[in-house]
Specification:
The chain is an alpha/beta fold and about 325 residues long. The protein is built from ten helices and eleven strands. The protein folds into three domains: about 5-95, Orthogonal Bundle (Arc Repressor Mutant, subunit A); about 100-170 and about 275-300, D-Maltodextrin-Binding Protein, domain 2; about 175-270, D-Maltodextrin-Binding Protein, domain 2 (3-Layer(aba) Sandwich), CATH 3.40.190.10. A hairpin with a 6-residue loop joins strand 1 (about 55-60) and strand 2. It starts with 11 loop residues before the first helix and ends in a 14-residue tail after the last helix. This is LysR family transcriptional regulator.
C-alpha cells in the first residue's frame, strides 16, 4: 500500500489527542487523561492543524469548539483507532499466551505418552490458546510444517530437508505386539523364529515403522509381507486386539491405547529402536505459543531405555 508522503507528518498521537479532547470536552481534562501537560497537548494540536492546513478548533469559544473539519476527521478516524486498539489488545493477549492458536502434528503413537500430556500441561497453563492436533505419518507432517500449516510436529525421522530441523526427543525399542490370548502372550521375551510368518500384520510401506523394519538385514521376508495388512498403527492394533495376528512395533506404539488386551513382549534377537523427533521449520520464526508448547514437550520427554543409537535407515 502506497502512503501519501504528505500524510507522514500525522501520527497516531495526533489522532489520539484529537479524540481525547472530543471525549473529555476540554484541553485541560484531555491532557490530564493522557498524562501530559496542557502546553504539550496544545502543541500536538498545533502540529496537526499545520499538517492539515486548517484550524481544528474555534478558539474564540470557551472551551474551544471543534470545527466541521475536526468533526469530519473525528468521524473518519474513530473506527480506525478502535480497530487498532483491539488489534494491539489481541497482540498483547497472544504475546502473553492469553490467546492465540497452536497447530501441532504427531505420529499417532506419540500422542498418548508424549504429545497428549504436553498438551494437557500447556492447556492448563494457557486455557485461552486454541489447539489443533493433526495425526499422520512423518513425511506428511514434515510437509505440513514446511508449508506453515503446522507450528511443529513430533514424529519419526522424515526425509532429510534443509527446510526442516529434526531434534531427537526420545527412543523406544521394537517388540512383539499380540493379544493376551495369543500363544506367545505368556513369554517374557520372544525370538523372531517364534513368530509364524503368516500371522504378522504388516503396515503401509510409507510408515516409519515399516521403513525401519524393511531396513533390518536378514529379517525374514514373511515378517515384512503377509496376507494381513493395515494402513495405520491404529488399525493394526485393533486387528491385533481382535486376535487376527501380531505386529512388530515400537513399545510406545503398542501402548497407544493403554489396552490391557494387548501385550508388548521384548524381542531377544532384534535390537531395533524407533526415535521420535521434534520437527520444526528452519525459515520461519517459532511463535511464542509454539515456544511455550515445545518447552512443555521437553518437560515430558522420558528417559531413554538405552544410550542413543543410530536408527537403521
Amino acid at each position: 500500500m502506497k502512503i501519501n508522503s504528505e500524510n507522514l507528518n500525522i501520527n497516531l498521537r495526533h489522532l489520539q489527542v484529537l479524540q481525547a479532547i472530543r471525549a473529555h470536552g476540554s484541553f485541560s481534562r484531555a491532557a490530564a487523561e493522557l498524562g501530559v501537560v496542557p502546553s504539550a497537548l496544545t502543541e500536538t494540536v498545533r502540529q496537526l492543524e499545520e499538517a492539515l492546513g486548517a484550524p481544528l478548533f474555534d478558539r474564540g469559544q470557551r472551551p474551544p469548539a471543534p470545527t466541521p473539519l475536526a468533526l469530519s476527521l473525528l468521524q473518519d478516524t474513530a473506527p480506525l483507532l478502535a480497530e487498532l486498539d483491539r488489534a494491539i489488545s489481541r497482540a498483547r493477549a497472544v504475546a502473553g499466551l492469553e490467546a492465540g492458536f497452536l497447530a501441532v502434528g504427531s505420529a499417532p503413537s506419540a500422542i498418548t505418552g508424549l504429545v497428549g500430556p504436553a498438551l494437557a500441561r500447556f492447556r492448563a497453563a494457557h486455557p485461552g490458546v486454541r489447539v489443533r492436533l493433526r495425526d499422520d505419518i512423518a513425511e506428511h507432517l514434515a510437509e505440513l510444517v514446511r508449508e506453515g500449516e503446522l507450528d511443529l510436529a513430533v514424529a519419526g525421522r522424515a526425509s532429510v530437508s534443509s527446510d526442516i530441523t529434526q531434534t531427537l526427543l526420545t527412543r523406544d525399542r521394537f517388540g512383539l505386539a499380540c493379544a493376551r490370548t495369543h500363544r506367545l502372550a505368556g513369554r517374557d521375551t520372544v525370538n523372531l523364529a517364534d513368530i509364524a510368518e503368516g500371522e504378522v500384520i504388516t503396515l503401509d510401506h510409507n510408515t516409519g515403522t515399516q521403513q525401519l523394519l524393511s531396513a533390518v538385514p536378514d529379517l525374514p521376508p514373511g515378517l515384512l509381507e503377509s496376507g494381513l495388512h493395515a494402513d495405520s498403527t491404529i488399525a493394526q492394533l485393533c486387528m491385533i486386539r481382535a486376535g487376527l495376528g501380531v505386529g512388530l512395533l515400537p513399545h510406545d506404539a503398542v501402548a497407544l491405547f493403554g489396552d490391557p488386551a494387548i501385550r508388548f513382549i521384548p524381542l531377544g534377537d532384534l535390537d531395533l529402536w524407533r526415535s521420535l523427533y521434534l520437527l520444526e521449520p528452519v525459515n520461519r520464526a517459532r511463535s511464542n505459543v509454539a515456544e511455550a508448547f515445545a518447552a512443555q514437550l521437553r518437560r515430558g520427554v522420558p528417559r531413554a531405555d538405552a544410550p542413543p543409537q543410530t536408527d537403521i535407515s
